[in-house]
Amino acid sequence: MRNLFLGAGLALTALFGAQALAAEDFQAGKQYSELRTAQPVSVPGKIEVVEVFWYGCPACNMFEGTLKPWTEKLPQDVNFVKVPAQFNEVLVLHARLYYTLEVLKVESKVHEAVFAGIHQAKDPRVTPARDGRRAILPTPEQLADFVAEQGVDKAQFLKTYDSFAVRNRLAKADKQVRGYQITGVPEMVVNGKYRIELQKAGGFEQMLQVADFLIEKERAAQ
């Protein structure tokens, strides 16, 4: 069974307990993996960096504060993309939420609020409940109420939530994640060729250092 996320304790261990390595020490099979089959990128001619994530993942929530400033400094020849995992019905719900926000072009202003609503506020409008082993999912109306507080039009959200545009993005993302051979979240994929796992890299900062190394590797190969 796939690991859906690394627990907060493991993430903290990776964050504080790993030794720093120089870029020349990064090796395939150790700090990153080479995919058996290279996957297509969304913008030909640019080096693509993908983060595969889940809103409910504690490690993804912790990673966000390190990842965001890194993405804001990426050069023009690098295209950064977020792709939500869909390993079960809870992840599918949050993936649909993410793509609804993306289609409405409000993802950038609501993304952090969703993480906070789940991990800090435990808001039931975005956080699934448990009845034994069964997940009780928030309804579309509950999700709409939550995002309305972030300035998103509720009627537009509900209209978009089950739209063709969102369903199309969900199908594409599921195919991508399968092609990347993702085993957990957060993970990163560089240019459809290299997968970076949190535990193998050694921490959040180390994941980004490996990503920088692979970006340079791809740039030099062009």
Q: So what's the overall shape?
A: globular
| Intertermini distance | 38 Å
What is the CA-based Rg, rounded?
17 Å
Q: How many alpha or pi helices?
A: 9
Q: What percent of the residues sit in helical stretches (DSSP H or I)?
A: 40-55%
Describe the overall structure.
- The protein is built from nine helices and seven strands.
- With 222 residues, the protein is α+β, with helices and mostly antiparallel strands.
- The strands form two sheets. The chain has a five-stranded mixed beta sheet with strand order 1-7-6-2-3, with helices on both faces.
- Strand 2, helix 2 (58-72) and strand 3 (78-84) form a beta-alpha-beta unit.
- Helix 5 (140-148) runs antiparallel to helix 6 (154-161).
- Residues 1-18 have low confidence and may be disordered.
Annotation keywords:
two-stranded antiparallel sheet, alpha+beta, single chain, 7 strands, 9 helices, 222 residues, disordered N terminus, five-stranded mixed beta sheet
Could you write a compact summary of the structure shown?
The protein is an alpha+beta fold and 222 residues long. It has helices at 8-17, 58-72, 89-103, 107-119, 140-148, 154-161, 164-179, 198-201, 204-221; strands at residues 33-34, 47-53, 78-84, 129-131, 134-136, 187-190, 194-197.
